[in-house]
Amino acid sequence: MASVFARAAQRVPDRRPLLQAVGFVVLVNLIGSLPGVLSSPGSAWFQALEKPWFYPPGIAFSVVWTALFTLLGVALWLVWRSDAAGRRLALGLFAVQLAVNVTWTPTFFSLEAPLAALGIILLLWVLVAATIAAFRRVDRRAAALLVPYLAWVTFAAVLNFEIWRLNA
User: Fold this and answer.
1) Domain that holds residue 30
2) H helices, E strands: number in the chain
3) What is the CATH number of the domain that holds 51?
4) CA atoms within 13 A on the CB side of 125
């Protein structure tokens, strides 16, 4: 009878990796959403700014950032669970770029400082590119998951520049 239970237990998949991945996704989404709670594009200052023709609808930002933070969470989990050389550097770069990421929103919206925010997003772009390179050495899939993030940060930098230029 004990062998029947042992065989049944062997067939049950280990759900810990999935739960860990979900935990990483939730954590990155929580961290990424914190600045939006404290500052928002709904301010009178931001509404009065001239925007470029390619400024997306407001809902696009929350949809895109949720998707990107989800990809970042999975990528972070893939690197975290790896034992490859370079893992610590990759994790450190990820933490630094995420910290820089969360400074952009309050700088732009709360401080009303588009030029300072532009400097932050350009630094963020460099850090994301470095993180992709570091992730690639650990897990190529994790690096690939960050490519859409780099594309969005590129778009956001252009958008930030244009808002600054149009309102300078």
Assistant:
1) 2-167
2) 7, 0
3) 1.20.1260.100
4) 15
> What's the farthest any 2 CA atoms get from each other in the chain?
78
Residue in the structure block whose two tokens are 């954590």: 27
Identify whether the C-beta of residue 135 lies closer than 8 Å to the C-beta of residue 147: no
Q: pLDDT category, 6, cuts 50, 70, 90?
A: low
CB-CB neighbours of 89 under 10 Å: 16
pLDDT 10s digits, 60-107: 999 999 999 999 999 999 999 999 999 999 999 999 999 999 999 999
Of 83, 35, 87, 79, the C-alpha closest to 61 is 35
- Measuring CA to CA, how many Å separate 108 from each of 65, 69, 164? 16, 20, 10
- Count how many domains the chain has: 1
CA distance 77 to 88: 13
CB 97 within 8 A of CB 128: yes
Tell which residue, 104, 89, 87, 95, has the closest CA to residue 159: 104
Q: Which is nearest to 69 in space by CA: 100, 102, 26?
A: 26
